[in-house]
Amino acid sequence: MKLAILHTESSLGWGGQEIRVLTEARGVAREGHDVLLAAPAQSRIFAEAPRYGVGALALPIGRKGFAGLMSMRGLLKRRPFDVVNTHSSTDSWLAAVACASVERAPALVRTRHISAPVPSNRATRWLYSKAARVVTTGERLRMQVIEETGIEARRAISIPTGIDLSAFRPGDRLAARAALGLASDAPTVGIVATLRSWKGHTYLLQALAAMRRPEVRLVVVGDGPQREALEALAASLGIAAQVRFAGNQPDVAPWMRSFDLFCLPSYANEGVPQALMQAMACALPVVTTPVGSIDEIVTDGETGVIVPARNDMRLRVEISNLLDDEARRRTLGARAHSEAHARFGQGLMVERMIEVFAGAADRHG
Predict the structure, then answer these.
(1) What is the pLDDT of residue 273?
(2) Of 59, 44, 22, whose CA–CA distance to 224 is shortest?
(3) Judging by beta carbons within 10 Å of its beta carbon (0-12, 13-18, 19+), is residue 202 exposed, middle or buried?
């Protein structure tokens, strides 16, 4: 059955959530379904959609309000959709109210990407009750949604984000460093993440300073609201010369292949971070925290190292130990690579999302 699917995203930012929306939409479209994204004209996801081959329509849904609601209602009246898949709080509200106020409304699927608490109130319970299915990016997030909204367990499903395993693969580290202008012989730690407070960059910088190892380099790929503060922190800690802020990169795979190890010290709001899966697919040893559903993909001591969140001293110890133990890095990286190929491919994510969409449309019809 060919489906018509509308994705809505009110977020103006750019990170794993927005990348998943576009990656999933592209994959579903390639399976023969009609897919459209509705997003604010000024949003990064709207600008990036053509690069992913995803059709996009500008709607004023960046804020809850009459204009956004009427634009959503107008779209649903003009074009027949089988499913609306919402992704952030604002567009979920606008889509739910619009669906409740038009005839022959499509089924509503709510994808929740992060582990922030769900508001506990009657309005939020109504919102989640309107969704035919709730999709989370990890099992722990699924249980959180069930507990905090009271929806039936059968209506929530965990579908982790898939990554492109053909793009994220091991490669020649020295060649990657030469192409990127990185020192060929420096032990290099990398992080790929939007520069938001909860990604834990502060703790990583503090850990690097506490190592007192001037030969170690840290490469920070990504941009965001914390960049100026993080650059100032690196300078105040006396490690500015050891840290490269590379900004946003259209292709992060070469950067991954240049690292000796990958670190993501998040302390809040995570689901299953794509960058962490990408690093594992590149056979990198990873150091991370048990936040969100991270420990559903990383097994401490087997496919990576898990340390307590907000603990720069443990980060220092574990990173330093790994940099000094090439054999252990190789073992962890090889196991991480095997885990990625067994579990993290895009195909499984797309297949399972199509099943969700088809089931929601069928039950709704």
Answers:
(1) 92
(2) 44
(3) middle
| Cα 252–chain centre separation | 14
Q: Taking the CB of residue 236, how many other CB atoms lie within 10 A of it?
A: 11
Contact status, residue 48 vs residue 23, Cβ threshold 8 Å: no
Give the containing element (helix H, strand E) for 333.
helix 326-343
Which pLDDT tens digit goes with each residue over 34-47?
A: 999 999 999 999 99
Angle between helices 201-211 and 227-236 (to 10 degrees): 20
Structure-token pair, residue 149: 């909204």
8-state DSSP, 304 = B
Q: Two tokens at 271?
A: 């689901």
Query: Which has the closest alpha carbon to 196: 15, 12, 9?
Result: 15
What digits encode the pLDDT tens for the residues 72-122?
999 999 999 999 999 999 999 999 999 999 999 999 999 999 888 888 888
SS3 label, residue 93: helix
Residues 248-284: tens digit of each pLDDT:
999 999 999 999 999 999 999 898 899 999 999 999 9
Which DSSP state fits 160? P
Q: Which two tokens stand for residue 177?
A: 């460093």
